[in-house]
Amino acid sequence: SIQEKAHGPEHPDVANALNSLGILLRAQGSYAEPRLLHERALAIWEKTLGAEHPQVSLALHNLANLLRDQGFLAEAQPLVERSLEIREKTLGPEHPKVGEALNSLGLILEKQGLHAEAQLLLTRSLVILEKSLGPEHPEVAGTLHNLANCVKSQGLYAEARPLYERALAIWEKSLGPEHPTVAIALNNFGILLQEQGAYAEARPLYERALGIREKILGPEHPRIADSLISLANLLQTLGAYMEALPLYERALSIQKNAYGPENPHVAVALENLGNFFYNQKSYAQSQLLHEQALAIKEKAFGPDHPTVSSSLNNLAIVLQAQKYFSEAHLFMERALAIRKKTFGPEHPEVAGTLYNLASMLREQGAHAEVEPMYREAIAVWEKVHGLYHPEMSFFLNSFASFLRGQGSYTEAGPLYKQALESALNHLSSNIGIMTESERFQYITTQTNPEPFLLNLIAMRGEGLDKD
Predict the structure, then answer these.
(1) Residue that terminates a domain, selected from 255, 284, 308
(2) Parent domain of 427
(3) What is the pLDDT of residues 7-55, one digit of tens each?
């Protein structure tokens, strides 16, 4: 390069050039070459400037962020911890570069499932950055966005929404409405809305994020895969399966090309495709994909990481559908233990796992264990999401059917009514955004009020529900 010819291969200016090139290539979706560049920049700065120079902390920080994006969290954490230590020592505890390092460390901890620890670091980062840079700075928006993700991961949806909205507004104002960073905020805010059942609000955010990324980053950038998966998940929820499948397949191809076949990002794409084939009743194909995803995650994160629990849960459901109950039960119990330990007992992922386990035990005839699991799952779900979340209608209907089978007609009737009301409420709030074919698929495969209504009619016919 020009710098190497002018100064020699180990001059600090060469390290500056290497660092800048690494950042540029990472932004374009490349990972192998940027790692080499950042490692070389780090070595040059350590040799020429000393191990505790702020430029060394910069190289450590950039290398850690690159490794984090690839899912190599165990390698990234000590680098960013060292970067933070250097910055606190050389710049002082209130410097914006300290806030930046706290934000990066918080991100790494959040991705490891250490949500409470991550939230403390991100909150401290936010205070430092707001004080030093002002409340409308793009870096403040970055920490707001990461804090929103962390809070959402703990099931605190009402707290997460204003953080997403504020981050998005700052980025749109400071970076422009078509910046790739704006697309990140749109996509993750859309995920929050979808998890709350607000499909009509989520869809345009996903579509706008995908449009920005394809225009600015190109069709093979790994961020495109994130948008494809998000949009495909929503389309599948709406029953538009054939629209979703090519998006999942394209996302998997992009992730494999970008990261290699055994990266955690690839596991996420495999998992989503596995869920698709489960919904199509292609159980053998679904099982294979979930087994591949589980193996990748366990290798990358260890057996007790929260992201491993999602693969365990999904694999258990597929095995249950094939009547492999003993294997399914072991996977589901393991998923439940991980989620309770990670999130606490009142998290929606705990509620979902309890519901799945109750349904499995009910199918096996283990009725004594089923009722408390249903009750706990419904109580947690209602506390987090309220009565009108789309999943609540399934929770209520399943529990009502169980109670009816046990002869508890007095309690079953009102639950059927709540299930019907929840389904109708959700249907009316989302059907306006759909095409005719999507409406048909959605009504027949997702929030279909007919089974709940038929159950109510059956109970009335038996003279068991007089309200």
Answers:
(1) 255
(2) 386-467
(3) 556 667 888 888 888 888 877 666 778 888 888 988 898 889 989 999 9
Find out whether 59 and 19 touch, Cβ atoms under 8 Å: yes
Examine residue 133 and state whether it is found in any structural domain, yes or no: no
Packed helices 348-364 and 306-321: angle between N→C axes, nearest 10 degrees: 20
Residues 227 and 277 in one domain: no
Per the CB < 8 A criterion, the answer to whether 334 and 312 are in contact is yes
154, two tokens: 């703990």
The per-residue b/e assignment along 30-50, b for 16 or more CB within 10 angstroms, e otherwise, is bbeebbebbebbbebbbeeee
Cα–Cα dist 393/330, whole Å: 27
161 within a domain of the structure (yes/no): no
Confidence of residue 437 (pLDDT cuts 50, 70, 90): low
Rg, Å, the chain Cα set: 25
Distance CA 131, CA 110 (A): 24
Helix H or strand E segment including 121: helix 115-133
pLDDT of residue 389: 73
Q: Model confidence over 284-335: pLDDT tens digits?
A: 999 999 999 999 999 988 898 888 999 999 999 999 999 999 999 999 999 9
**Best CA proximity match to 426, nearest among 193, 238, 197, 192:** 197
Q: With respect to residue 163, please indicate whether it lies within any of the assigned structural domains.
A: no
Q: In angstroms, rounded to a whole number, what is the distance separating the alpha carbons of residues 153 and 384?
A: 12
Distances (CA, A) of 47 to 3, 36, 50, 433: 17, 17, 6, 60
DSSP code for 344:
-
Residue-wise DSSP of 238-278: TT-HHHHHHHHHHHHHHHHHHH-TTSHHHHHHHHHHHHHHH
Judge if pTM exceeds 0.85: no
Number of domains in the chain: 3
How far is Cα 99 from Cα 224, in angstroms, rounded to an integer? Answer: 29
